[in-house]
Each structure stands twice: as structure tokens, then as C-alpha cells.
């Protein structure tokens, strides 16, 4: 579930001691060179020295030979006061909704959505991107699903092809089990419940001792020094999209996992200074890949597909267990690593397009 991918266009390094392969996750799915983009329903006109989250879409679209669709930010205040945010691509009502993996954010889907060419919605799950953190640090799929179930009737008007990668895949299963009327097909990307929770390299845990800095270049330099990433431009893009500038002018990682990880690996004084959320995280994240996900998958009544990365986290044994438990589901393989949305976006988009074309509208 934690995303540990190092490629030219993606490095996924989410670190949390209690999650699979502790790794810092940030998405690098394009070129970091800022470009000008037309201001059009959320796609911001951006000069080279005025980067926004939309500054990279034009170069990504150019690499794929497609046009940049209108993109806009959505925001929904939840009953408990937290805010859930998302990106909507295209002018029409979304047909496909995307849920990212741990430590990532909605922009990890940019290349796949551009290749797909359909109206789409990509949600920043709680604790990620621009969505609020949870005070209880509970980022299990079933907990995250509640926010998605609340948002879909507001942001869409029809059942969705629901695509989730890693943690997002388990969340998608929980959404479909809880609210089947909102979903017409489910695609789970490179994850099964209970996947091996082995620890990752100590270097990744050490990386998150620094969670804020005077500027983004510090994070880029640090990532490059640790060997996390491909080119400097790619690394800079990922850092830009997964950090924010605080009111005091310092830059920090957006996702909650980075800060929880820093507390977990910090010295005794740092650990003593943290609140109970760190302890809650240590317990709750042990359940992120728990066996309860199988019950959610079994409850899905719409077409279900597992897309396995040939160099990903799903082993042959895990695939066999998936097929045995869920004989009506389809299993497909794509050459690529765990973050197929970044390493193989065109191939993944083709599978999603087929699902959107063949699944019952459910209207």
C-alpha cells in the first residue's frame, strides 16, 4: 500500500513504520519545468516563475499528444468540519473517480486522466493533498471511504467507475461495499488485503527526520542525495505538488504520514513532545492492509478488476488468493511498477476506458 517506486517519471516513497515498506510517497509523473497554461475553469495561466498545481499539465499533455482539459478544484466541508478536496477534469459530469495511494495526492492521476480523455474526478483522500488531516490519524480504507461516500453525490450525478491504487484500492472496495448505488465498476490497482508488511530501508525512515525547510530546494536536494527520484526536474515537480508553504514562510510536506513518521523515528524528546495522534497512528495504520478488505471486495456486486503491476507489490500468491476468493473478478497485468498511474498511464487508461464503455450505466 505504501508506494515505493523509483522511476524516471515517478518516485513513491511513503514512510510509516507500521505500513507496508515504509516509504515517503510523492508523485513525479511529468516534467518539472513550469509552462504556460490557459486560464480555463481551473487551469491557471502560469508564468515560469509563478508555478501553480496546474503548471505542469501542458507539458504532460504534450508528451501524450493530447489537449489539456479544463481542470478545477472542488471543496466539500464534511459534517465533522474537515474539508475534502478534489480535482475535476473536463466540463461534463465525471464518469470515473480516482483514489490515490498512501502519501500521494490527486495529481498522481494527471497522466492517466489525460490519456483517458474522459470527464473525471480525482480526490485528495483525508490526510493527503489539500484535504484536512484526521485528528485520530485513522487512514484505513474503511474510514476514508466515508468521506468518498459523502462527496460523490455532491460532485457527480451518476454511478462511477471507481479506480483506486494501493490504499485507494482498498478505499474503493469499501466505498462499493458500503454504497453500491454510487458505483458501476471497481478497478483496484496493485493491492490486495493483507499484503506483506515488511519494513523498508532505514534510509527512507531517516529521510523523514526533516519535515519542513526554508524552501523546496532543500527537499529536492535531500531527495536527490538519498537517491529518491530520477532527474532533478522530475523530483522538483513531485516535491512542489506534495509540499506547501506555511504562514511562517517555511515549506512542509502536505501529507500527514510524513509528520507521523517523523514523530515515530525522532528522538525521545521529539516523541515526548508529540500528541496522542502519533500513538493512534501506530495502532490504526496496522489495520490499513488488514484482512477486513476481503469482506469489502466480496461484497462488491459490480464488475471488479485487479490490475497487477509486473514489478509491483502483488505477488503470485496474492494474485492466486484474490482469484480464489473472488472467482468472478478479472485480473489483468501491466508492465510497470507499483504506481502504474505514473509508470504506465496509457496502458492503465485503456483498461479504465474499456470498463467505462462496458459497465452498466446504473442510472
Please describe what this structure looks like.
The protein has 363 residues and is α/β, with parallel strands linked by helices. The protein has a domain at 71-196 and 289-358: 3-Layer(aba) Sandwich (Rossmann fold). Helix content is 35%, strand content 19%. It is built from 14 helices and 14 strands. The protein has helices at residues 57-64, 110-116, 141-155, 167-178, 202-207, 216-225, 232-241, 256-265, 268-273, 276-284, 292-298, 316-325, 340-343, 345-358, and strands at 4-6, 11-14, 24-26, 71-77, 83-89, 96-99, 120-124, 160-165, 183-189, 212-213, 243-245, 251-253, 304-311, 330-337. The strands form three sheets. The chain has an eight-stranded mixed beta sheet, with helices on both faces. Strands 1-2-3 form a three-stranded antiparallel beta sheet. Strand 13, helix 12 (316-325) and strand 14 (330-337) form a beta-alpha-beta unit. Helix 2 crosses helix 14, helix 6 crosses helix 7 (232-241) and helix 8 (256-265) crosses helix 10 (276-284). The chain is globular, with a radius of gyration of 19 Å. The two termini are 32 Å apart. Mean pLDDT is 79; it is low at 1-49, 197-201, 267-274 and 280-285.
Amino acid at each position: 500500500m505504501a508506494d515505493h517506486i523509483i522511476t524516471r517519471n515517478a518516485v513513491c516513497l511513503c514512510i510509516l513504520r507500521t505500513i507496508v515498506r515504509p516509504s515517503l510517497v510523492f508523485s513525479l509523473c511529468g516534467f518539472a519545468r513550469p509552462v504556460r497554461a490557459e486560464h480555463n475553469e481551473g487551469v491557471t495561466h502560469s508564468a515560469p516563475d509563478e508555478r501553480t498545481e496546474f503548471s505542469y499539465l501542458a507539458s504532460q499533455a504534450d508528451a501524450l499528444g493530447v489537449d489539456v482539459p479544463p481542470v478545477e478544484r472542488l471543496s466539500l466541508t464534511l459534517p465533522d468540519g474537515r474539508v475534502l478536496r478534489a480535482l475535476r477534469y473536463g466540463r461534463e459530469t465525471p464518469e470515473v473517480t480516482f483514489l490515490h495511494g498512501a502519501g500521494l495526492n490527486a495529481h498522481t492521476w494527471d497522466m492517466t486522466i489525460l490519456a483517458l480523455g474522459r470527464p473525471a474526478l480525482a480526490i485528495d483522500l483525508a490526510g493527503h493533498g489539500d484535504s484536512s488531516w484526521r485528528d485520530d490519524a485513522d487512514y484505513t480504507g474503511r474510514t476514508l471511504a466515508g468521506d468518498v461516500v459523502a462527496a460523490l453525490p455532491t460532485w457527480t450525478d451518476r454511478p462511477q467507475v471507481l479506480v483506486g491504487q494501493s490504499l485507494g484500492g482498498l478505499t474503493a472496495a469499501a466505498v462499493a461495499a458500503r454504497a453500491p448505488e454510487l458505483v458501476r465498476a471497481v478497478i483496484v490497482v496493485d493491492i490486495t488485503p493483507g499484503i506483506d508488511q515488511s519494513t523498508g530501508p532505514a534510509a527512507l525512515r531517516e529521510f523523514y527526520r526533516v519535515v519542513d525547510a526554508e524552501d523546496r530546494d532543500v527537499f529536492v536536494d535531500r531527495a536527490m542525495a538519498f537517491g529518491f527520484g530520477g532527474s532533478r526536474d522530475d523530483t522538483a515537480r513531485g516535491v512542489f505538488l506534495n509540499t506547501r508553504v506555511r504562514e511562517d514562510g517555511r515549506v512542509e510536506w502536505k501529507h500527514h504520514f510524513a509528520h507521523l513518521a517523523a514523530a515515530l523515528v525522532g528522538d525521545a524528546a521529539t516523541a515526548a513532545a508529540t500528541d496522542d495522534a502519533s500513538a493512534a497512528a501506530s495502532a490504526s495504520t496496522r489495520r490499513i492492509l488488514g484482512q477486513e478488505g476481503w469482506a469489502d471486495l466480496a461484497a462488491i456486486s459490480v464488475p471488479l478488476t485487479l490490475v497487477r503491476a509486473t514489478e509491483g507489490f502483488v505477488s503470485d500468491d496474492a494474485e492466486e488468493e484474490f482469484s480464489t476468493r473472488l472467482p468472478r473478478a478479472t485480473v489483468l497485468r501491466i508492465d510497470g511498477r507499483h504506481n502504474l498511474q505514473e509508470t504506465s498511464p496509457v496502458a492503465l487508461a485503456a483498461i479504465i476506458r474499456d470498463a467505462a464503455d462496458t459497465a452498466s450505466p446504473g442510472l
